[in-house]
Structures are given as structure tokens and as C-alpha cells.
Amino acid sequence: MQAIPYIALVSALAALALAVFYYRKVSAAPAGNERMVSIMKQIQAGARAFLRQEYTWVAGFVVVMAVLIPLITGVTLSFLSYLLGAALSAGAGYAGMTVATMANARTTNAAIEGPSKALPLAFRGGAVMGFSVAGLSLLGLTFTYLLFVEWIGTDDAFEIFTAFGLGASSIALFSRVGGGIYTKAADVGGDLVGKVEAGIPEDDPRNPATIADAVGDNVGDVAGMGADLFESYSGSIIAPVALTAFSFGLTAEAAGQDWNMRLLMFPMAIAFVGMIGAIIGSFAVRGGASTDVKALSRQLHRGTTVAMILTVVGTLIMGGIFFGDGDMFEAWYGLPLAVIGGLAAGWGIGKVAEIWTSDHFGPVRRIAAQAETGPATTVLSGVSAGMVSVAASVGLIAAGVLVAYWGGQQTLGDDTFGGIYGIAVAAVGMLATTGVVVSVDAYGPIADNAGGIAEMSELDPSVREVTDALDSLGNTTAAIAKGFAVGSAALTALALFKTFEVALENAGGGLSLDIGSVDVFIGLFLGAMVPFLFAALTIDAVGRAANKMIEEVRRQFREIPGLREGKPGVTPDSAACVAISTRGSLREMLAPGALAVVVPLVIGFIDVDTLGGFLAGALVTGFAVAIFMANAGGAWDNAKKYIEAGAHGGKGSDPHKAAVVGDTVGDPFKDTAGPSMNILIKVMTIVSLVFASAFV
């Protein structure tokens, strides 16, 4: 068992080696003509400039937290693991963004030959992000565990280990919010003025916001999403380890005892088999000659399917190895079933997202049909579709929790710890194949950028047909990955919540969740309120930045002679739009980010029972709001693309204009507020856990 951290560390290094391999594959592909290369370089410059500024702003917050954590908790070395988690999360996001901005023009150039070349290339670009996220996360976690638990054996080793997750969460929160505000300000502003007012195509080179929109795809949907999944993956492994350590008051020395060691190492063993499954699965992705989205989807999801099958087999083997001793444990199969249940629930939530966001199913087609009667009915049908999808997702999470709780009790005994531990490792199962899941997700922004470059480079319309098919699939894959992320957030937050309760008891305090108590009751309502307030802040931020973008695009169309008419030699001032998105997103991300950290700290220092109710209310409401927003936004987006493909009058028709309005409403839903929810609920929980002893 003691070899497991080392084996997991080796698998993390293998993932990073694979990321390097895919990077070389992408960089070796031709980037196309001079115009395509020029656009690619503009996107790269804008994305790098934004991330440098964003990380500079966030660095101040990270430094303050690195000082406050040991100062308030008394765990001196916790700042080291906190900084490591933050640095690796930022590094993963930057690496993924760098390769995505290289892969976009190369995917466009490959699309000239067809989807058989373009799809694998876009996937490989996304795979650099995917395996950087999974590899750096597992590398950082195993190194932190080995350093503080096994090699040094420090006091408070597990408190130090837990701080790694808070570091990852800090970067994820600001990256997701800041990147989301950036990309949607450009997207909404460019769409409303370009497609609705000026009547020009999406990504038209005359539109000044087009480059800013392409930059936003990379800083929001690649770097931001990567930091999000880095945090989710790290948190899922930390939760069962911390739960075990705090429940039994383990020291570094006690962690080496056989029973303790098995419970501490099992999450890392599952991460190892999931990593190997993801690595093998990534080679199963192939392209095809057809531009049919269903055919492309089968090709792209083959990697995920292979990874999941291998993970299930590996989990059963690990279950027998870890829990096959009948004298020490009860039914060996219980915890493996909990892991598999989590993986199945994640897949199910992803499938729900696909059904509600793909134009091959009823919900999206009904929204497109409603566009016949204008923007109002388009928006109403999208809202209702997102709400219905919540019911299906909640049912899947409830089933996953029941299976995981039952499985944990079968192996560890009929008590609360066994059940909660089962739920915690179910979250690990849900994210075990993160490498390939993120690869498929990051593929989407690359395909989106490829379509924009094809339009701006004025390539043959057949190229845009290929990239549009890839992009339409990318919207669905993004919704699926968001489903995995928010599903794991619910399970991980539940495990961290229980760990928080145990940490309070260890510090000499306690937690009551009696809703008849006024303290808990108030906390529940405050917790239910925060996701709505957080969503309002982020959506308002997008609205304000988009307003400035709209004014700038209108100004350029009005004041630059010949721009709107497309006269030769007349080009828009794209840099002005990039600057608007950059300034707006950096300024606007501070209030939502501070809300997630400050509110639980303030409540915790006032009353821990209120904090307990607060976390419970935020978890339940945040999960529902995240699913609703992600799926509603994805449905509006693909309803627009379904019409653009020729349904209900096609591009330029009144239904198309109505669908564009629905899409612009959905943009901050699916790419800003919605995906930030899963980070919100975990940040508040892990902040409470790290500072638990200080509250008492």
C-alpha cells in the first residue's frame, strides 16, 4: 500500500509526458496561409496579455491568503501547500491556453481536407489541457502527501495537505469568473451589433469584437475551465483523505498503520487507474469523413468510453486488493461499487446535458421552433428546458449518493463514516477520467476558434461547414464536462462538509443542523441566497462589459469609413475591443470572488451552526442553479446553430434573429455564472474546513 503514492505520481508524470507528445503533434501541423497565421498571433497575444494581467491581480489575493491561513489557523507550513496548489492550477491553465491558441489555425487548415483531419487535431490540442490538468493535479497532491505525511511526518500533516485544495480553488474561482466575463462580454456585444443590427455573419472580419471573442474562448473556456477542473479533481481526492484523517485523528505516524493506510490510499489508487484509462482512451479518438454531428460525436466520445470501461475494470481489481481481507473489512465490493456509481452518475448527468443541449433531441428543436414567434418565446422555452434538466440531474445525483452510501457501509460497516466515505470516493470515480473529459471539453473552444479563423480568412464556405459541425459538437461536449464538474462538486462538497463537522469536534467544538434552531434556519436561507447573488453579480458584470463593447462596435461601424461595407484595406480596431473586455473582466471579477471567501469566514466567526446551515443551503441551491444555467445556455446556443444550418428560415431570418437574442441571454448563463457555481460551493466549504479550528 505504501507504494501507491509513488505509482500515482508516476502515472501523473506519464500524463504530463502525453501532454508534451500531443503538444509536439499539434505544433508540427501547418498553420495555413499568412492571413490565418496573422489572426492566430493576434489571438495568442490577446490571450497571453489577459492571463498575465489576471494572474498578477490574483497573485495579490493568493499572497494575502498565504499569510492569513497560518496566522489564523496556527498551521505554519500550510502556506506551502496552498501556494503549490495555486501555482500548479495557474500553470495548467496557462499551458492549455498556449496550445489551444496554436491549435485553432491548424484545425482550420486541417478542415480544408475535411473532418477526418480536423477533429483529431482539435482533440489533441484539447488533450494538452486535459492531461496537464490531471497530471499536474495528481503530481501536486501525491508530492504534498509524500512530503508532509511520509517523508517529513510533520504535525498537522493532513491540515497542510488540505490547504492544497484551497490554493487550487483560489485560482479556479477567479479564472472561471474573470475568463467568463471576458469571453461573454465580447461574444454578446459582437453578436448583437454584428448579426442582429448590422446583419453580417458571425466572426465576420468587419466586426471589431471578433478577435476579442476568439481570445475569450481561450481565456474563459480553456484556461478558466482548466483551472475549474483542476480544482474539482484535486478536491475529489482531498475529501476522502481528509475525512479519514480527521475522523480518526490521524497523525503522520498513524497514517502508516494498515487499516488507515488502505483508506488513505484508495482514492489515489482510483486516480491512478483512471489516469491510465484516460491515457489509453485518448488514443481511441479518430476522425471520420462525415460532417454529421452524430458521427463526429461517436468518434470523439470513443475515448471517453474506453477510459470509463478501463476505469471500471481497474476499480474492481483495486477493490479486491485493498478490501479483500475479510478479517479487516466486510464486503470488498462495496467501495468499488461506490466509485463505479459515481462514475455512472457523472456519465448520466453528462447524458442529460447532451439531451438538453444537442439539436438531435427535442428540447433544442422546440426552442428553435419557438423562435418563429420571436425572442420572448425563445427565452421562455430555454428557461423551461434548463429547469426540467435540473430534475433529471438531481435524480441522478440522489441515486449516485444512495449507491455510494450503501457501498461504503457494505465495506466499512453500518455507520455514518462508511457511508460518507463511500460518497467521497464516488466523487473520485466521477472525475477519475478527468484527463480525457477535459480533452473533449477543451476541443470545443479550439473548434469554435477554427470557425472564426475560417470566416475571417475568407476561406471557401466548405471549410466553414466542417468547422461549424465541429463547433456544434463542441457546445455539447462543453455541457457534458460542466455536468461532470458540478456533479462532482455536489459529492465532494458533501464529503468536505462532513469533514468540516469532524474538524470542529476535534477542535473542541461541535455542529448542530437542527432546522428548528433559529441559527441553522437563518443559515439555510443565507446559503440559498448566495448562489443567486453570485450569479447576479457575474451576469451584471457581463452586461456592463458587453454594454461598453456594443458602444465601441457601433462607434467603429459609424466612424470608420468603409468598414461596414467591407471595402478593401479597411480593418477594424480589434485592440480596442480586447482592451474593453480585459479591463471589464479584471475589475468585475473581484466582488464575486471575495463573496465566496469572505462570507463563510464572517459567518463562521459569528456562529458555526449558522455556517453549517449556510453551507447546506448553498450546496443544494448552487447545484440546481449550475445545472439550470449550463443546460439552458447550451440549448439556446445550439438552437441558434440549428437554425443557422437551414431550419426555420436559416441565417438572416426573423427566427434566426430571435435565436441570437436567446443565445446572448444564454452566453453568461452557460459560460460565466453557471460553471462558476460548482467552484463557489466548494470554495466556501473548503474555506470553512481550513479555518474550522479558528472558528472554535
**Major sheet attributes:** none
Could you report the average pLDDT, rounded to the nearest whole number? 90
- State the assembly state of the protein chains: single chain
Kindly state the percentage of residues in helix: over 70%
- Please give the alpha-carbon distance between the first and last residues: 35 Å
What does the radius of gyration come to?
24 Å
Total count of helical runs of at least 4 residues = 20
Structural class: mainly alpha
Low-confidence stretches: none
- The shape, in one word, is globular
User: Got a strand count?
Assistant: 0
H/E topology pattern: HHHHHHHHHHHHHHHHHHHH
Which characteristics define this entry?
696 residues, mainly alpha, globular
What does this structure look like?
This protein is an all-alpha fold and 696 residues long. It has 20 helices and no strands. It has helices spanning 4-28, 34-73, 78-111, 115-151, 157-198, 210-247, 258-282, 293-323, 334-357, 362-370, 375-412, 416-430, 434-456, 461-506, 518-559, 574-588, 590-606, 608-644, 654-690, 692-695. The longest helix is centred in the C-terminal third of the chain and has 46 residues, at 461-506.
Concise structural overview:
By secondary structure, the protein is mainly alpha-helical. Helix content is 83%, strand content 0%.
SSE map:
Layout: H1 4-28, H2 34-73, H3 78-111, H4 115-151, H5 157-198, H6 210-247, H7 258-282, H8 293-323, H9 334-357, H10 362-370, H11 375-412, H12 416-430, H13 434-456, H14 461-506, H15 518-559, H16 574-588, H17 590-606, H18 608-644, H19 654-690, H20 692-695
Helix pairs in contact: 1-4, 1-7, 2-3, 2-5, 2-6, 2-16, 3-4, 3-5, 3-6, 3-13, 4-5, 4-6, 4-7, 4-13, 5-6, 5-15, 5-16, 5-19, 6-7, 6-12, 6-13, 6-14, 6-16, 6-19, 7-8, 7-13, 8-9, 8-14, 9-11, 9-12, 9-14, 10-11, 10-18, 11-12, 11-18, 11-19, 12-14, 13-14, 14-18, 14-19, ...
